[in-house]
Write a structure and sequence with these properties.
The structure is a homodimer of 189-residue chains. The first copy, chain A, is built from 9 helices and no strands. With 189 residues, chain A is an all-alpha fold. Chain A folds into 2 domains: 48 residues, Arc Repressor Mutant, subunit A; 132 residues, Tetracycline Repressor, domain 2 (Orthogonal Bundle), CATH 1.10.357.10. In chain A, helix 5 packs across helix 9. The first copy, chain A, is elongated and about 60 Å long. The termini of chain A are far apart. Chains A and B meet through helix 8 and helix 9 of A and helix 8 and helix 9 of B. Chain A binds a DNA duplex (30 and 30 nucleotides) through helix 3.
DNA sequence: TCTTTGCGCGAACGAACGTTCGTGTACTTG
DNA sequence: CAAGTACACGAACGTTCGTTCGCGCAAAGA
């Protein structure tokens, strides 16, 4: 449960993310959610629109987080290789700071209703294209070894997926060690 | 659909894996499954026990596949580093050869009923411990750079998770390139 | 030929689902 | 004090779920 002062609406969003993370969106019921908040199911609807809308909020909140990150990154005056490192560092920090929300974002987006789903996939595509371009540039500039950029992109992004699933009791991995492990083999020097 | 001669029971298992992959276990219904097989829902139960049992079969079939792989690997006369490379190669091949089944195995195991869930987690624990030991040995033998073995394990296994999700139309990644990308930075020479 | 077996089917079951609606109540505002 | 707002609630809705049961038919075995 959530302690301290907090609006019921905020509590619902936070607990929904936790519930969706634990059980998955489809297996999580509004009755589950109400129980955890010590509310009756019908009371939820004084604060939220629908179960689907909870998922949309969680997914797009994070999609926009990553979108903003990419814009901010592209505006930096750095080499492409340094931008990639910057992005990866932020990915690690985001995954460790918002694990529940990011788990839902990563694993449950396919349950979005058709219109939202399309928009979501579009946003991800833009992000991945930008990321891929940076990888290509870093290779052309000679900072990274030559690889299929799409292969590298998929591998890099995939390799971080365990971070947000970490048990709350687990000792957090060191950011520098993760970066070292991911990038050392990519660099050409 | 599935062409050629095949027992109805086998068709059900194959189509169930596809359905669970597409929609997720909880969101997939037995009516969906029956539709795809051009059967009525009740007819499924002439061949299978329950929906849960379908999931159990898929998950443990793969758990045992990996268990056997590990036993076979440990029996090889190779350095620890070479064993790790061997395991990773097999992981890639398995993911590309059985993408639907492996997706269900990777993503849907948490919907197993309590008893099966416990057994499944136990099997995974054993596998990961063996893998982790190999990584430690490879570091002690000087073939791999020194890292927290658990960090390396999580990163390596995670980094392959995109393979089994690949669209059937996508061009398959080259096994050697993936191995190179994963291990180059890990090796100490 | 008679009997058994395998299996596809329609109908129906109880349970759980997301959600709506009208009500009661406790604050806030004028 | 009166009016309005916010919100928790019980009851109920229509739907979908996994599954069971008994029936009928066709192929296989004696």
């Amino acid at each position: 449960m959530i302690d301290g002062f907090m609006l019921t609406k905020e509590k619902i969003y936070i607990e929904a993310a936790r519930l969706f993370q634990e059980k998955g969106y489809a297996a999580a019921s509004m009755r589950d959610l109400a129980d955890r908040l010590e509310l009756r199911p019908s009371s939820l609807y004084s604060h939220i629109r629908s179960k689907e809308n909870l998922l949309e909020k969680i997914c797009f909140e994070n999609a926009e987080r990553y979108g903003a990150l990419m814009q901010e990154c592209l505006a930096l005056e750095l080499t492409a290789a340094a931008k990639v490192e910057y992005l990866l560092r932020q990915h690690i920090r985001i995954a460790l700071k918002h694990p529940t929300s990011i788990t839902v974002f990563n694993d449950e987006w396919r349950h979005l209703p058709p219109v939202s789903l399309k928009r979501f996939i579009g946003m991800r595509k833009v992000y991945e294209e930008n990321f891929c371009t940076l990888l290509s540039q870093a290779m052309q500039e000679g900072h990274f070894r030559s690889f299929d950029p799409l292969l590298v992109l998929n591998t890099l992004l995939s390799s971080l997926l365990w971070l947000h699933r970490l048990d709350a009791r687990a000792t957090l991995p060191k950011e520098d060690a993760v970066i070292d492990l991911l990038l050392y083999g990519l660099r050409s020097t």
